[in-house]
Each structure stands twice: as structure tokens, then as C-alpha cells.
């Protein structure tokens, strides 16, 4: 190409850029992106989430490679890509237009942890390895009544208990037995929340039952929460639920197994009522130290073997959180939990890695069931026991969006429900490492 031709092409390009407004050509895409982002924020939409991975070493080296009596951290001596979670939501606010009063939340989890949290909502536990769980999916509206009555409908995290499904929302990496084996994860129904005073908020919900997307009987349960803040450094919440939780055969393992309940079968008496009550007491004793106590009690009619005996479980959890600064903190937890009827622990039930959470060596060499379903629908064939744990966690956040933890935990039971190699024993010790990226 001649020099004259090159000059001509260059002059032509300059003229085109000049006619189109110079920088306007190259800034068009970013401007559009900014406008879309601004509209997204104006509408009040938010997208956030987290990615959670860990490694857990079990010093008992169980032959099953399973950490017995654990909830999500069941894989012994193994790396685990626990979960990736995305939340899309619009929070309802009491002030403003009608649009401002409307909101929703969709919380979607992917990964091995989702197998277990998904199974807890009676979608064929033990028969499905799908690693997708819609943890929450609900709409909300704040009615212009008094201070604003919040109405939520759909699948929502339960009002019961201090701990949550997601580990990064808890002080420690692992969860207590009290949470995993005797408290609901989610509820599906309608919930009303009202703040009477800056120090008093109440919630009440009418629900299908514990973890039931599809009701497993013809009754409904209700849940409640009374949250009091008598002082800026002290909070006291009382929670509970009451209602029929046992199945009439409609959805023990999902509706695909309708009709499996027979008269007199443990866990199949929809007239039996489940009652639980607990409290969360939070005290900010210094600017760096927080103490949390959670006493808890549960009872259910006609849930034990024989179909005519009540089941009882109860426990207490205690936490001490010390923040050295914004990056470093320690979390010490102690909990004790009693399964007096043997209906909440060591009764089978699949965990997320395809094994079972049945216990290793109860009375008579009990090894548990492999058929699943033991956490939500009582089987009455488990091991009555008292189990406790001491958990020490060191947390470091090198950046606000990055959380790392090292956790040592000792579990002990009055029964031989753990494994040391192939030998049933009454204790186990684990060391876990966790990394969570939040966005």
C-alpha cells in the first residue's frame, strides 16, 4: 500500500471519529452498563453470595471415612467443595411507594452440602444426589398498618434455633448436634412480623411443618418468635413451634412413596403433636466479647417405637466470641444435647456424601439404617444418648470478602456411636480448615 493511500485512510478515520463525537464511540458500552447498574440499584435489586470449601481431618481415622454424628462436615480426611450460593433479592421497606413495600428472596445453593439440605425438605432423601437446593424462595410485603406489618409467603429459613444452614453465618464451621438433629432448617408457609417498639418484635407463622415443602399430613404447624432488646448490649429471643409433624403416608420420602405409612408405625401418627421451645440470649459484655446461650427443649407424642410413647430431646449451647480486631477473632463453643427417646439420632438418614449418618456402635452393635429419612420422619429405632462437644475456632479475615477458619472439635457420647478405625468408641476429634469467599 502506498504512503498516499495510508494517509488517505488515516484522514478518513479521523473524520469519522470527529463526526461521531470522538470519545462517544468508545464510551457508549460503559455508559449503557452504568445506566443498567443504576436502574438495578434504583429498583432495589441485590445479588450476592458465597463459595465455601474445607478440609477435615478425623484423628480416629474411621474406616467409613465418615465423621459420625456430624451434619454437613461428614467427610473424614477429605477436601470438600461444600457449596456455592447465590442470593437474588429485593428487600421490602416500610416507607415509600407501594413498590418499595414489595420484596422477595431467592437463595440458591449448589454443591455437596445441597444434597443434605435438599433432602431435609422431603425430596426423596437417600435417593437423589442432585446438588441443587433452593434454600429460600419467598415474597414479602409490608402492609401500611401501624409501624408496618411484614407478610412473607414461601419457603423461608426457620425461626427455630440460633445456628443457620450456611456455615459462614455461624460463629463456627461445624454445627451442633442440637441444630442438625433436632431443629428445623426451613419452613414453608406464611409468616407475619411486627415491631411493636424498638425493643419488641414478634413473628408468627402458619407452616406445612418442619422442612416440608409439601405437607406430609393434613394438619398445619405454627412457629413463633418474640425478640426483646431491653438494652443495646442485651438481646433475648424466645422461639418455638407446635403442630403435627408425623406423616399420614403422603410424603415420607417425597410423594413418590405415598402410602408407605401403616397404622402403629413409629413416625406415622399425624395426631401426635411436636412441641419445641427455646431461647437465644445474647450479651455484649465488652466491646470485644460476646456471650450467647441457647437452651432448647423438644417433645413429640407417639413418636417412639410402639407408637404410643412420647419422644423427648433437649440441650444447651454456649458461645464466647472474642474479636481482637476486624480481622482476627476466636470462637469457643460448648454444647450438650440429649436424645432421651432415641428418635433424633442414630436412626439412619443419608448425608450429602452418599453414606449414612447412622452411628457406629450403639447397644448390641447397632449400625443404623441405610434407607434414609431419619432426621425428619422419626423411625423410633435409634439410640438414646447424651452427646456433647467442645469446639475451638480461630477466624481470620484478610479482606472483608474473604473468611478463613481453623477449627478443633472434640465430640463425646455416653454410647459408642463413633469409630476409631473399625472399633466403636465414645469420642472423636477433628481438625478442620475452611475458606469462604463472599461476594
Number of helices: 4
Give the overall pLDDT as a whole number: 82
Q: What CATH architecture of the domain at 57-79 and 159-189 and 199-438 do you see?
A: Beta Barrel
- Please report the total strand number as a whole number: 18
Task: Report the structural category.
Answer: mainly beta
Series of secondary-structure elements, N-terminal to C-terminal:
HHEEEHEEHEEEEEEEEEEEEE
Specify the oligomeric state. Answer: single chain
> What is the 3D form?
globular
Structure in words:
Helix content is 11%, strand content 45%. The chain contains 4 helices and 18 strands. It has a domain at 57-79 and 159-189 and 199-438: Porin (Beta Barrel). The chain is mainly β and 439 residues long. The N and C termini lie far apart (52 Å). The chain is globular. A 16-stranded antiparallel barrel has the order 1-2-3-4-5-6-7-8-9-10-11-12-13-14-15-18. A two-stranded antiparallel sheet has the order 16-17. The longest helix is centred in the first third of the chain and has 19 residues, at 24-42. It has helices at 3-20, 24-42, 113-119, 177-182; strands at 45-58, 78-90, 102-110, 132-143, 149-157, 186-197, 200-210, 221-231, 234-244, 273-284, 289-300, 311-323, 328-339, 385-399, 402-413, 418-420, 423-425, 427-438.
